[in-house]
């Protein structure tokens, strides 16, 4: 019985920690957007994106090194396929930043961020198609609400009513 209790506590801890990390990630992304909007005044979006990338690379590298996650041995264990996907992920992330900062330079932080969060919808569809992950009825309804919420935030109401007529 004690072993079951330990397993239950470990599962609860794991479940709670990923939610806490996800919330902290969302808060940090929000702060990053607000600080970027302040920083974009009079600065080229590409320059700001490049500086942000350098700062992030330094912070992430320090974190990985301090946790003992980066070494020649660990890097050599990656297959060529894993390297390809990591590189493609980096390219996708970099292009995302570039497009996001160009949008943020001329659009409002709220509208740009809400449209950017359509990545939730795109990721869900791609995960369904390529990773064979399931989209349940509940998550499908949530994705529809995300899409409708994006439309409501990004498109002025008078233009929405004009489209409906």
Quick structural overview:
This protein is mostly helical.
Tell me what the structure shows.
This protein is an all-alpha fold and 165 residues long. It has a domain of 115 residues. α2 packs across α4 and α5 runs antiparallel to α7. The longest helix is centred in the first third of the chain and has 38 residues. The mean pLDDT is 87.
Q: What's the structural blueprint in terms of helices and strands?
A:
Layout: H1 2-39, H2 45-66, H3 72-76, H4 80-106, H5 109-116, H6 119-130, H7 137-154, H8 157-164
Helix pairs in contact: 2-4, 5-7
State the helical fraction.
Answer: over 70%
Mean pLDDT level: 87
How large, in whole angstroms, is the Cα Rg? Answer: 20 Å
What is the β-strand count?
0
List unreliable stretches of 5+ residues.
none
Q: Structural class, judged by helices and strands?
A: mainly alpha
Approximate strand percentage:
under 5%
